[in-house]
Amino acid sequence: MSEKKQKGYRNVLAKICLVLGTFFNPLGFDAAFALVMKFTESYILTDIIFYSVALLFFGLYFILSRRS
After folding, report:
1. Integer Cα distance of 40 and 63 in angstroms
2. Range of the domain at 38
3. What does pTM read for this prediction?
4. Residue 42: its pLDDT value, please?
5. Gyration radius (Cα) of the chain, Å
6. Burial of 1 by CB count in 10 Å (0-12 exposed, 13-18 middle, 19+ buried)?
């Protein structure tokens, strides 16, 4: 695979990670947050889960976008 195609795939993957990172941020997606809170029965645990997943995807975005 050419280097140009690899950079294109990394850019797309980086943008997908950015979108997923924003989705898992609990400030705007209360329906998903409420669903997870129903299963965990803990606001704090649900908050930690959502911020951790958001942090993971934001980190992946920065790592992937730096390489391209």
Report:
1. 31
2. 3-67
3. 0.60
4. 95
5. 15
6. exposed
